[in-house]
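Summary for the lay section of the report: proteins are chains of building blocks that fold into shapes. Here we show the chain for DUF3010 domain-containing protein and then a coded description of the shape we predicted for it.
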Amino acid sequence: MIVCGVELTGSDAVVCLLNMDRGQFNLPECKVRKLSLLKNHSREDLKRFQAAFAELMAEYGVTRVAIKERMPKGKFAGGAISFKLEAAIQLITDTELTVTLLPPAMIKSTLASNPLPIAFADTGLKVFQETAFITAYVAQMTSMKGAA
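The coded shape description reads as follows.
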């Protein structure tokens, strides 16, 4: 199963694909590291972003998207644009795509009980993809527990 981990920052959706096949993790080659919403934030821009995201997921056969949840208030609150991006991803009408939000506390507790099997530096991913990678890993771990 291929999971796409997503971190929403500003007008960008940073993505990382993580596949688990017969108990082994691998990182499929992905031509896209992040998708950006144009500066106008118009309805058409959001539709373009949504279509580009859906097309990317279909191209790589992604069945589950896991988004690191942002807080609506407080010190670590997400920006308004990131919530628009989240909604655009959640409203993709492809029935094969499951979108879940992973709260930071759940990510932290899952990592405590299931540490990353590889140092992030050894993955070959860009530094800005680390949170998306961790989100994808936690989504894979939680889906394994649900299947067990």
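Put simply, here is one thing we learned. Residues 37 and 118 are 32 Å apart (CA to CA).
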